């Protein structure tokens, strides 16, 4: 995006042509049509038909993007009156969901909480094994069953164990269902129902993990999962090597869901709190 802005605004006036080029660039960068139009309008408000530098454009863009993101920047926090506080993790395969669960488990444990993980992706052996490895690494128990077991039954058992063992936070993985796998989507809805019957108000958070490299498809994923599981927040991963972080702005604008954290690498400390100003400036190419 940074190079594109520089290319458009090198010694040029802000007119209809440059604004159109900028809108096209912002759409290509996955900000979405609505955000691109709004940002371009904000830019034109005071500067139309005047010479403007690429650095000025970046500053204005960063300010506009920050204003969209600031209301949704909210950490994922547990309510100590919930015993346990149940967090259901959703998202498609490959988004980094299981890794994110392990990293969140470490964060909560470091905060002095008793944590339990539940390997609710009973569809894939690799997902169960991966979560068990994270459990060992972080030093927290993992509830798992045989591959192909009923995921709702596993969630129920995990909640019983968590209550019996005085667990503060229970993180439940779910199968990385694709939108066209109807039986897996139905299973997710069943998991949500069973958790709610077992404990009023649970799951207390339902977090979707989105892969930044999927671009606008991430918006569609939120729409689909929202219908089934009442998504309450977002974690976006793979922002270290992606030019597609703009889709987080599109999601924030469209859904207004809290953005809890961003993943910027594989290391355990690479799940970071979401900072709207830093994110907006990095997105448009301003060095922090």
User: How many DSSP helices?
Assistant: 11
Strand order of the largest sheet: 5-4-6-3-7-8-9-10
CATH topology descriptor of the largest domain? Rossmann fold
Oligomer: single chain
Helical proportion, percent range: 40-55%
Kindly state the number of beta strands. Answer: 10
Give the overall silhouette.
Answer: elongated
Q: What ranges have pLDDT less than 50 throughout 5 or more consecutive residues?
A: none
Mean pLDDT, to the nearest integer, reads 92
* Helix/strand/pairing category: alpha/beta
- How much β-strand is present in the residues? 5-15%
- Determine Rg (CA atoms, Å): 21 Å
Structure write-up:
This protein is elongated. The chain folds into 2 domains: 2-72, Four Helix Bundle (Hemerythrin (Met), subunit A) (Up-down Bundle); 85-273, 3-Layer(aba) Sandwich (Rossmann fold). The chain is an alpha/beta fold and 288 residues long. An 8-stranded mixed sheet has the order 5-4-6-3-7-8-9-10, sandwiched between helices. α6 (125-138) links the parallel β4 (115-118) and β5. It has helices at 2-8, 16-28, 33-47, 54-69, 97-110, 125-138, 151-164, 182-198, 217-229, 246-255, 276-284; strands at 12-13, 51-52, 85-90, 115-118, 142-143, 169-172, 205-211, 233-237, 259-263, 271-273. The protein starts with a helix and ends with a helix. It has 11 helices and 10 strands. α5 (97-110) runs parallel beside α6 and α7 (151-164) runs parallel beside α8 (182-198).
């Amino acid at each position: 995006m940074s190079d594109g802005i520089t290319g458009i605004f090198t010694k040029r006036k802000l007119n209809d042509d440059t604004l159109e080029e900028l809108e096209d660039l912002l759409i290509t960068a996955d900000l979405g049509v609505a955000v691109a139009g709004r940002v371009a309008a904000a830019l034109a408000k005071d500067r139309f038909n005047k010479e403007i530098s690429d650095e000025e454009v970046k500053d204005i863009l960063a300010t506009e993007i920050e204003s969209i993101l600031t209301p949704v920047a909210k950490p994922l926090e547990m309510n100590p009156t919930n015993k346990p506080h149940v967090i259901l993790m959703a998202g498609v395969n490959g988004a980094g969901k299981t890794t994110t669960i392990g990293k969140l488990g470490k964060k909560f444990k470091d905060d002095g909480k008793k944590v339990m993980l539940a390997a609710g992706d009973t569809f894939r052996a690799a997902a169960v094994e991966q979560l068990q490895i994270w459990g060992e690494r972080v030093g927290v128990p993992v509830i798992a069953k045989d591959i192909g077991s009923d995921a709702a039954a596993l969630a129920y058992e995990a909640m019983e164990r968590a209550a019996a063992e005085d667990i503060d936070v229970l993180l439940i993985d779910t199968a990385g269902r694709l939108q066209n796998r109807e039986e897996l989507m139905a299973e997710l809805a069943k998991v949500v129902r069973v958790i709610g019957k077992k404990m009023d108000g649970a799951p207390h958070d339902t977090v979707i993990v989105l892969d930044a490299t999927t671009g606008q498809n991430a918006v569609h994923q939120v729409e689909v999962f929202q219908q089934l599981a009442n998504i309450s927040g977002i974690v976006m991963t793979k922002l270290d090597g992606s030019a597609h972080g703009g889709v987080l702005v599109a999601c924030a604008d469209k859904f207004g869901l809290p953005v809890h954290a961003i993943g910027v690498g594989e290391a355990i400390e690479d799940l970071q709190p979401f900072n709207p100003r830093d994110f907006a400036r990095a997105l448009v190419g301003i060095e922090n």
